Amino acid sequence: MSDQTPPPIPGNWAVAHVGNTGAWTIGQVWIDHAAGRMCMLVQAHHCNALGSIHGGAMATFADGQAGAVSDYTAGTSAHTPTVTLTIDYIGSTPEGSWLVMDVTLLRTTRTLIFTQAVLSVDGRTVARSSAIYRNFSGKDAQ
Question: What CATH number does domain 14-134 carry, 3.10.129.10, 3.40.50.300, 3.20.20.150, 3.40.50.720?
Protein backbone atom coordinates (compact mmCIF):
# COMPACT_ATOMS: atom_id res chain seq x y z
CA MET A 1 0.00 0.00 0.00
CA SER A 2 1.63 3.19 -1.11
CA ASP A 3 -1.19 5.68 -0.61
CA GLN A 4 -2.11 7.66 2.48
CA THR A 5 -5.34 5.72 3.20
CA PRO A 6 -5.33 4.82 6.90
CA PRO A 7 -5.89 1.22 8.00
CA PRO A 8 -9.48 0.05 8.58
CA ILE A 9 -8.73 -0.24 12.29
CA PRO A 10 -9.88 2.29 14.92
CA GLY A 11 -7.05 4.55 16.04
CA ASN A 12 -5.32 7.89 15.62
CA TRP A 13 -2.99 6.69 12.83
CA ALA A 14 -0.09 8.60 11.29
CA VAL A 15 1.79 7.24 8.29
CA ALA A 16 5.51 6.46 8.45
CA HIS A 17 8.00 4.53 6.34
CA VAL A 18 10.38 1.77 7.41
CA GLY A 19 13.21 1.46 4.92
CA ASN A 20 16.87 0.50 4.69
CA THR A 21 16.30 -2.71 6.61
CA GLY A 22 17.83 -5.09 4.09
CA ALA A 23 15.89 -7.90 2.46
CA TRP A 24 12.82 -7.29 4.62
CA THR A 25 12.16 -3.62 3.98
CA ILE A 26 8.70 -3.13 5.39
CA GLY A 27 7.75 0.11 3.64
CA GLN A 28 4.68 1.99 4.78
CA VAL A 29 3.54 1.55 8.37
CA TRP A 30 0.95 3.32 10.47
CA ILE A 31 1.64 4.43 14.05
CA ASP A 32 -0.83 5.40 16.80
CA HIS A 33 1.57 6.91 19.35
CA ALA A 34 -1.15 7.62 21.91
CA ALA A 35 -2.09 3.93 22.03
CA GLY A 36 1.44 2.56 21.53
CA ARG A 37 0.40 0.70 18.39
CA MET A 38 1.81 0.18 14.94
CA CYS A 39 0.37 -1.66 11.93
CA MET A 40 1.26 -2.68 8.40
CA LEU A 41 -0.51 -4.21 5.43
CA VAL A 42 1.09 -7.57 4.60
CA GLN A 43 1.99 -7.51 0.90
CA ALA A 44 3.38 -10.12 -1.51
CA HIS A 45 7.01 -8.99 -1.04
CA HIS A 46 6.68 -9.71 2.72
CA CYS A 47 5.48 -13.29 2.16
CA ASN A 48 7.02 -16.74 1.95
CA ALA A 49 6.14 -19.43 -0.59
CA LEU A 50 3.00 -20.31 1.40
CA GLY A 51 1.58 -16.79 1.02
CA SER A 52 2.02 -15.85 4.68
CA ILE A 53 4.34 -13.22 6.11
CA HIS A 54 7.91 -14.53 6.31
CA GLY A 55 9.32 -14.78 9.84
CA GLY A 56 12.14 -12.42 8.89
CA ALA A 57 9.70 -9.77 7.72
CA MET A 58 7.62 -10.13 10.90
CA ALA A 59 10.77 -9.83 13.03
CA THR A 60 11.79 -6.71 11.11
CA PHE A 61 8.37 -5.18 11.79
CA ALA A 62 8.55 -6.22 15.47
CA ASP A 63 11.96 -4.54 15.72
CA GLY A 64 10.16 -1.22 15.27
CA GLN A 65 8.34 -1.47 18.58
CA ALA A 66 10.41 1.36 20.10
CA GLY A 67 8.93 3.58 17.38
CA ALA A 68 5.47 3.15 18.88
CA VAL A 69 6.61 4.41 22.30
CA SER A 70 5.98 8.12 21.87
CA ASP A 71 7.68 9.42 25.01
CA TYR A 72 11.04 8.15 23.79
CA THR A 73 10.96 8.26 20.01
CA ALA A 74 8.04 10.27 18.60
CA GLY A 75 9.04 13.51 16.98
CA THR A 76 12.70 13.13 17.85
CA SER A 77 15.73 12.25 15.83
CA ALA A 78 16.89 9.90 18.58
CA HIS A 79 18.13 6.63 17.18
CA THR A 80 17.40 3.58 19.31
CA PRO A 81 19.64 0.71 18.16
CA THR A 82 18.43 -2.76 19.05
CA VAL A 83 20.35 -4.50 21.82
CA THR A 84 18.22 -7.66 21.77
CA LEU A 85 14.99 -8.81 20.11
CA THR A 86 13.05 -12.01 20.72
CA ILE A 87 9.96 -13.17 18.89
CA ASP A 88 7.67 -16.17 19.32
CA TYR A 89 5.61 -17.08 16.25
CA ILE A 90 2.15 -18.28 17.22
CA GLY A 91 0.06 -18.13 14.04
CA SER A 92 0.12 -17.29 10.35
CA THR A 93 -0.51 -13.90 8.75
CA PRO A 94 -1.68 -14.16 5.13
CA GLU A 95 -1.05 -11.60 2.41
CA GLY A 96 -3.63 -8.80 2.54
CA SER A 97 -3.90 -8.88 6.35
CA TRP A 98 -3.40 -5.87 8.57
CA LEU A 99 -0.76 -6.85 11.13
CA VAL A 100 -1.18 -4.83 14.34
CA MET A 101 1.48 -4.53 17.04
CA ASP A 102 0.43 -3.39 20.54
CA VAL A 103 3.52 -2.23 22.43
CA THR A 104 4.02 -1.89 26.17
CA LEU A 105 6.88 0.17 27.56
CA LEU A 106 8.19 -1.90 30.47
CA ARG A 107 11.02 0.24 31.79
CA THR A 108 13.57 2.81 30.81
CA THR A 109 16.96 3.68 32.20
CA ARG A 110 19.36 6.40 31.10
CA THR A 111 20.85 3.96 28.62
CA LEU A 112 18.17 1.34 27.82
CA ILE A 113 14.50 1.04 26.78
CA PHE A 114 12.65 -2.24 27.54
CA THR A 115 9.49 -3.11 25.58
CA GLN A 116 7.18 -5.99 24.85
CA ALA A 117 4.63 -6.40 22.09
CA VAL A 118 1.75 -8.58 20.97
CA LEU A 119 1.21 -8.86 17.21
CA SER A 120 -2.28 -9.70 15.98
CA VAL A 121 -4.49 -10.00 12.92
CA ASP A 122 -8.23 -9.37 13.32
CA GLY A 123 -7.84 -9.71 17.09
CA ARG A 124 -6.05 -13.08 16.82
CA THR A 125 -2.55 -13.20 18.34
CA VAL A 126 0.05 -14.29 15.77
CA ALA A 127 3.29 -13.45 17.64
CA ARG A 128 4.73 -11.95 20.79
CA SER A 129 7.99 -10.12 21.13
CA SER A 130 10.27 -8.41 23.62
CA ALA A 131 13.08 -6.02 22.93
CA ILE A 132 15.78 -3.92 24.55
CA TYR A 133 16.99 -0.76 22.79
CA ARG A 134 19.83 1.65 23.46
CA ASN A 135 18.45 4.93 24.82
CA PHE A 136 20.41 7.87 23.43
CA SER A 137 17.88 10.44 24.65
CA GLY A 138 18.76 9.79 28.31
CA LYS A 139 20.44 12.32 30.58
CA ASP A 140 23.89 10.85 30.02
CA ALA A 141 23.46 10.14 26.29
CA GLN A 142 26.63 10.31 24.23
Answer: 3.10.129.10
